[in-house]
Amino acid sequence: AQKITQTQPGMFVQEKEAVTLDCTYDTSDQSYGLFWYKQPSSGEMIFLIYQGSYDEQNATEGRYSLNFQKARKSANLVISASQLGDSAMYFCAIEAGGTSYGKLTFGQGTILTVHP
Amino acid sequence: GAVVSQHPSRVICKSGTSVKIECRSLDFQATTMFWYRQFPKQSLMLMATSNEGSKATYEQGVEKDKFLINHASLTLSTLTVTSAHPEDSSFYICSAREVGGGYGYTFGSGTRLTVV
User: Fold this and answer.
1) Partner residue facing B110 (CB), from A43, A103, A105
2) Which of A33, A77, B69, B81 could anchor a disulfide with A21, C-beta 3.0 to 4.6 Å?
3) Chain A residues with beta carbon closer than 8 angstroms to that of B5
4) pLDDT, tens digit, for every residue of B49-65?
5) B106 to chain A: which residues are within 8 Å by CB?
């Protein structure tokens, strides 16, 4: 079974500053993928970034980067130059291989509030 | 990019009635779709995996007879909540992945079900 832990229920950041959202995971699979999604108040789930367990380099997508530390089983999301529109709930998720392919296990989420 | 359309976005129904939610991949074929449930301020929990042309696979604890899933075509999966009760009130959201379209799973916009 897979597990995602997000220990920050809420985070606050000043506009234009960087913020790190924590995510640790647990899985017995050697092959897995880690995802970050953004959920605004409207409810939609917006895909942000993906990191494969065999990827040696940290994933980056625009202002989003994933600080992947495999030995620590952590996959923190870094948002640079925060914008007011970044205020939302952020979920970390894991997809393991084998019969779990396609099934995402989500963490409890972190509510990010960006202050002007 | 891949788009998943979900309807309706909101529905209010009376206790004891059934509600059908549609999830449609607009510009790609999805042999597999996933249905999640989310309670307010909580995480997404996978309910079932919808497989085109075959029976859905339900997660442990999810009642098959209450949550009927039909995946009749490569672009459409439906979730029917039968004999709905107030405790079924929740946010339901589907997802699919476009083969060759990247790593991210695309989610529908979700359906907020209220049973009165």
Assistant:
1) A43
2) A77
3) none
4) 998 888 999 999 999 99
5) 47
Task: Check pLDDT > 80 for residue A76.
Answer: yes
Amino acid at B77: S
A73 vs B65: CA distance, rounded Å: 38
- pLDDT, residue A100, reads 64
Contact A45 B34 (CB under 8 A): no
Among B109, B111, B93, B106, residue whose Cα is nearest residue B29 = B106
For residue B115, the Cα-to-chain-centroid distance in whole angstroms is 17
**Mean pLDDT, residues A54-82:** 97
Question: Using CA atoms, how far apart are residues A49 and A66, in angstroms rounded to an integer?
Answer: 7
What count of CB pairs under 8 Å joins A to B?
Answer: 52
Q: Are β-strands A32-39 and A10-14 bridged in parallel, bridged antiparallel, or unpaired?
A: unpaired
| Opening angle at CA B3, ends B65 and B18, nearest 5 | 25
Partner A contacted by B42 (CB < 8 A): yes
* Arithmetic mean of pLDDT, A26-44: 94
Percent of the residues in chain A that have a pLDDT greater than 70, as a whole number: 97
For the purposes of burial, counting CB atoms within 10 Å of the CB of B103, is it exposed (0-12), middle (13-18) or buried (19 or more)? middle
> With a CB-CB cutoff of 8 Å, which residues 51-110 of chain B face chain A?
91, 93, 95, 97, 102-110
